[in-house]
Amino acid sequence: MTTPMLFPDDRQFWFETLRVLGQADFGGAEVGEALAAAAQIKPGDYDSWHDAWYALAERLRAEAGAAAAAGHRITARDSYLRASTYYRSAEFFLHGNPDDPRIDRSYFASVDCFHAYAELSGLSIEPVQIPYEHTVLYGYLYRPAGQTGPRPTIVMHSGYDGAAEEMHFNGALQGVERGYNVLAFDGPGQPAARHRDGLLFRPDWEHVVGPVLDWLLDQPGVDAARTGLLGVSLGGLLAPRAAAFEPRLAACVAVDGVYRFGAAAEQHDIAGPDGPDGRDGPGTPPNPTVRWAIDQAKYVLGVRSAGDFVQLSQQYSLAGGIAERIACPTLVCEAEDDMFFAGQPQELYDHLTCPRELMRFTTAEGAGAHCHIGAQRLAYDRIFDWLDGILAPR
């Protein structure tokens, strides 16, 4: 287990801090200002966490507006992007009370800042709405500059707690650099769908990806024969689930692979005699990861208790021959020090019968954390090297 550099007694707070720091390489954070904010946070105190990141985001958003008004486009662009990250982080731990007004306030401020960044970025980042059942799914279509004709396209989404805007740092920019179109979107249970329409997660993710592909393949410049799907975190189960039933996909990437969501509950003993409230034993403080996971489940799964969470998580599984149905080449990534889904990538890989590869990332190279946070450039360079071999631009 990697020793936290901050919050030594709260690995969940450290993981989320590293998640922020990992976006610095793409302009989504500044290491110094992020560390200064983290220094104001009391370990395990969700209000303190919110207040530190929200104050930083507010300051940067004001600076961005002033810079834009003065004609300083680059400064405004950079400040808006960092503000978006910090707003997103501010509301992360508040979901145990879905009615907390700070949740929507921070979320919509984060999205507004990302849109402002996109307009100033000089990149082709188009906010899109994809028809889905009685509503729409929200996302972003990235296109490489100066290229014409059909191009390979990567559809990507996050998992249990990530947003489409965060996919900007988890492969979208690197895909565009390589000549790919990238469609990043939020499905049911993920931030845009949950905040805007109250949509909760569903295990049959093929019914989410299907409408997304229907829309995407009608867009100009998309090569229908070279379209892949990438899922992050719980998306490492959802994307393979969709690939099992979606023949239009030419490749699938699980970052990192998950075979059974319920394995996380088992790993952290959420269903154990002392587990429902996140405590390891009488008189001990709550396990920070279990405490957060149950709060998040109330918000994105609609459960009321730890027991409900454990029961519902069993529906999110690739067992029963689902993994074996996947036909397209599939890349399964694995983090050496995964604090959520240890062993799950190997289990998924072992059940695949399609062309497959297991890509391991280690702690020694700085990429051993769940989904390789803090090492996204390293990780996605390797992932896109693999994708180039399957969907290589002509």
Outline the fold blueprint.
Elements: H1 11-21, H2 31-38, H3 46-69, H4 73-90, H5 101-120, E1 124-132, E2 135-143, E3 151-157, H6 172-177, E4 181-185, H7 191-197, H8 206-216, E5 222-232, H9 235-245, E6 251-255, H10 262-267, H11 288-300, H12 306-313, H13 322-325, E7 330-335, H14 344-351, E8 356-361, H15 376-391
Parallel strand pairs: 3-4, 3-5, 5-6, 6-7, 7-8
Antiparallel strand pairs: 1-2, 2-4
Helix pairs in contact: 2-3, 3-4, 4-5, 8-9
Question: What can be said about this structure in brief?
Answer:
This protein is α/β, with parallel strands linked by helices.
Strand count = 8
What name does CATH use for the topology of the largest domain? Rossmann fold
How much is the average pLDDT? 93
Sequence of secondary-structure elements: HHHHHEEEHEHHEHEHHHHEHEH
Silhouette = globular
Question: How many DSSP helices?
Answer: 15
CATH top level of the largest domain?
A: Alpha Beta
Uncertain parts? 272-285
Question: Order of strands side by side in the largest beta sheet?
Answer: 1-2-4-3-5-6-7-8
Query: Major sheet: size, sense and barrel closure?
Result: 8 strands, mixed
End-to-end distance, in Å?
Answer: 43 Å
Give the name of the CATH architecture of the largest domain.
3-Layer(aba) Sandwich
Task: Give the count of structural domains.
Answer: 2
The class by helix and strand makeup works out as: alpha/beta
Please indicate the percent range of residues in DSSP E strands (runs of 2 or more): 5-15%
Helix amount? 40-55%
